[in-house]
Design a protein that fits this description.
The chain has about 120 residues and is mainly alpha-helical. It folds into two domains: about 70 residues, no CATH class; about 30 residues, no CATH class. Helices cover about 45% and strands about 10% of the residues. The strands form two sheets. Strands 1-2 form a two-stranded antiparallel sheet. The chain has a two-stranded antiparallel sheet with strand order 3-4. Helix 1 crosses helix 3 and helix 3 crosses helix 4. The chain is elongated. The termini are far apart.
C-alpha cells in the first residue's frame, strides 16, 4: 500500500504537474526506477477505481491509460537514473567518401589514433 497518495492521485486525474509533491511521494514510498510501471498502474487505479484497468480500447487510450502515462512520465522525471561510472570503450571509425571509399576502425594503439582524436577535438 502506498503512502501519501491524495495529492499525486489528483495530479494524475487532472494532469497537474507539481514536482515537489511527486518528489515527496517518491521519497516517502521508496520508489525506484524499477518500480515506475507498477506504481503508475496503482496510482491510475486509485485515480479511477471504477474504470477497468485497460490502457487501450480499439487503439484509443482509455482514461485509465492516460492516468498510467501521466503518472509514469512524472515518476521518470522525478527519479534520476543511476549514474554509470564505468569507463566506456571508445572506438574511432574513419570513413573515406567518394569512389572506392569505405570505413575502418582505428585501434587505440595505432600511431594515427592520437593525431586523429586531436584533430577532431580541435587541438
Amino acid at each position: 500500500m502506498l503512502n501519501n497518495t491524495n495529492d499525486v492521485v489528483n495530479a494524475v486525474r487532472y494532469a497537474v504537474r507539481t514536482r515537489p509533491m511527486w518528489e515527496t511521494f517518491v521519497a516517502e514510498n521508496g520508489i525506484t526506477r524499477d518500480m515506475i510501471a507498477d506504481t503508475a498502474k496503482e496510482l491510475a487505479s486509485l485515480a479511477y477505481p471504477n474504470d477497468e484497468p485497460v490502457q487501450k480500447t480499439d487503439g484509443k487510450r482509455t482514461r485509465y491509460g492516460n492516468a498510467v502515462q501521466a503518472a509514469a512520465a512524472m515518476l521518470r522525471k522525478v527519479i534520476e537514473p543511476e549514474a554509470d561510472d564505468t569507463p566506456k570503450e571508445v572506438v574511432l571509425r574513419v570513413s573515406l567518401s567518394g569512389e572506392g571509399g569505405g570505413s575502418t576502425v582505428v585501434p587505440a594503439d595505432h600511431p594515427l589514433y592520437s593525431s586523429i582524436v586531436a584533430l577532431l577535438a580541435g587541438e
